[in-house]
Amino acid sequence: MQNINLDDPSLYINRELSWLKFNKRVLDQATYPNLLPLDRLKFIAIYGTNLDEFYMIRVAGLKSLYKAGVYETGPDKLTPKVQLELIRKEIREDIKTLESIYLNIVDELAKNNLFIKKFKELDDEKKAKIKDFFFNYIYPVIIPIAVDATHPFPHLNNLSFGIALKLKGKDEQIKYGLIRIPRVLPRFVKIENTFVLIESIVEHFVEELFQGYKPIVSTPFRVTRNADLDIEEEEADDFLEVLEEGIRLRNKGVIVRLELNGDADEELVSFLAKHLDLDSNDIYYYKHTPLNLGAFWQIVNDKDFAHLLTQSFVPKILPPLDSEDVYSAMEKQDIMLYHPYESFEPIVKFIKEAAYDPDTLAIRMVLYRVGKNSPIVKSLIEAVRNGKQVTVMVELKARFDEENNLRWAKQLENAGAHVVYGIPGFKVHAKIAQVIKYKNDKLQGYVHLATGNYNPTTAKIYTDISFLTTNPKINSDATKFFHYLTGYAVDKKLDYLYMSPTQIKPKLLKLIEKEASLGEKGYMILKANSLVDSTIIKALYKASMAGCKIDLIIRGICCLRPGVKGVSENIKVHSIVGKYLEHPRIYWFKHSKINSFISSADLMPRNLDRRIELMTPIENERISHRLENILKIQLSDNTHRYVLQENGEYIRVTPKEGEEIIDSQEIFEKYVTKIAKLSKQSSKHINKLAKKMLKDD
After folding, report:
1. Rounded CA separation 425/420 (Å)
2. Do 264 and 219 contact (CB within 8 A), yes or no?
3. Which of 151, 307, 339, 429 is catalytic?
4. Bridge partners of residue 362, in order along the sequence
5. What residues contact 178, with CB distance under 8 A and at least 6 apart?
6. H or E segment to which residue 249 belongs
7. 233, pLDDT greater than 50
8. CB within 10 Å: which end of the chain, N or C, has fewer?
């Protein structure tokens, strides 16, 4: 062990390249057998949306580092320049795969009488209908723009979509122009069973927009800007004002990507690249796939074709919450919910019922991403009106949710809630709510801790853990935690829960070290979204070198390189994608006094060192055992599980001949459905028996 240098860059996989491998696994979902065609299209939409954000934030950041002359950025020691080159190469390879998958989906949709077409591919009857649509709905709002000495090239907002044109006038002069396609227009114009690309419609009617000019060539294009907000909190007199200005400036960031159709005219490409001040390395061509992959949600969500999309699973409410209110149930026992298999509705009721209960004195919460139409925030506002003390930490720095969170924060403050807007230098990413009631002549606290956000919409598609408890030790720490958020404290440590940036990493390192000390008897399973922190990775390497067996279930980025001789031979890295986004952080250690921990924190420097997070020890043996079972079922998955290889590639696990097919997400669906059904049958039986007894009396 002493002869191995754990700082060797070859032991670490690059963060950005690892993320691209994750997005490739998302795209790979569209190739699974037995999927309905719109399920396949959905994964292309997710892949595209993910890639947009990656370019807006991660690639934009690397380009900034490169311009600033930074040479090293992580333990893998790859320079920003090399990373950018590798990223571009990887994305261009992905585009080939994407286009092949897309063409197969289009064929499959056509067999099911659903078509995605260009205007020129339509029959005369549909063309006539589209013509009416153009003049009634597109022509009045479309924006034709001349670009010449007296008409400067316009500002294009982030993710702007439009058409670049080369035109010829009656005097044979060549002119250049743009047509901006506003976001208020649909990406696809639906005519009966056909979705028509809007750019193909606009291109057909160019002469109506530039009268007296004939189009020579045109190309649809889409631009991406640096969308990361750079806010100096310590220097801000009014953080809200600075944040609002930052949101407005998001559309003015440096352009970092240009997307074009594959047959784009070279002169038009040069025209765009020159005015956008963009290197040709950041231009991507799509030959068959329409630009803006995320817009496929319009087709996926069309109710007329719901039969081509797998019906959504309906989350269940299981005992004891199916027969009594959440507070009565919590007073009897600790409760764990596994979303989205188990409904998020009890968590919504946890706040709603507190808002109206005369015994409620106070409600405290941390809100990170709550959604646009949040029933929880509405209940908090009602609670204030009902005279409750409401304290809410609204994290305004939640990326791409800043504007939404700002709106809710203002509404809460206007209602009279005490709103904390953030902690200077840190994001508050903890998921916690506490309700204080006056019951039986004393104060009683109820706490909800979770791995996911207070967002009922995402709770239907993200897997997450909710933990409900009246445990006095947890309540004491919850109170202390909220005091930290609203006041001042020198030593920010909790007594039972663990809080970053001071406690979570040291505790995890201690737990890893203890398992490592047991050598071959040691075993741990760590499930997280990402594993990036080099200190944690080194600790895992040392544990592996000591003989300890380690299973990592890392959905997204993993910088640890498994299977390296003498270093990580005892570590296996698994990734599960599936139809739900695997979001829980569950840390399980075989020989720890408390085996299971749930957390809001991923194994990344930002979570462990630069955010305020919480990690909860699960002392309840029943719940801890359930968490262990969840992890072990996922490790046996041979349908949606991938295994990371030493070379950084992932291999999809498939059932061997004669082996039982194990789809962990489907197993959890069937399990909660069975429990819900048995519970319902039991209730019916009890009610029937009660009626019979009354009749006999």
Report:
1. 14
2. yes
3. 429
4. 389, 436
5. 144, 145, 147, 153, 154, 162, 163, 164, 165
6. helix 239-249
7. no
8. C
- 238-253 burial by CB neighbour count: b if 16+ within 10 A, else e? ebeeebeebeeebeeb
Q: Could you give the CA distance from residue 416 to residue 672 in angstroms, rounded to a whole number?
A: 40
**CA 615 to chain centroid:** 20
Whole-number pLDDT of residue 247: 53
Tens of pLDDT, residue by residue over 424-462, are 778 899 999 999 999 989 999 999 999 999 999 999 999
Nearest CA to 67 out of 50, 55, 51, 79 is that of 79
Q: How far apart are CA 330 and CA 322, in angstroms?
A: 13
DSSP 639-683: SSEEEE-TTS-EEE--PPTTPPP--HHHHHHHHHHHHHHHHHHHH
* Residue 637 to residue 358: CA distance in whole angstroms: 48
Question: Which tokens hold the place of 321?
Answer: 């919450």
Cα(37)–Cα(106) distance, rounded to whole angstroms? 8
**Cβ neighbours for 563, distance < 8 A, ≥ 6 positions apart:** 569, 571, 645, 646
**Both tokens of residue 510?**
């201690």
Clarify whether 429 is annotated catalytic: yes
Q: Please give the pLDDT value at position 250.
A: 57
Handedness of CA 19, 25, 26, 27 (dihedral sign): positive
Tokens standing for residue 610: 């630069």
pLDDT tens digit string along 297-338? 999 999 999 999 999 999 999 999 998 999 999 999 999 999
Phi, psi of 257 (to 5 degrees): -155, 140
pLDDT of residue 697: 39
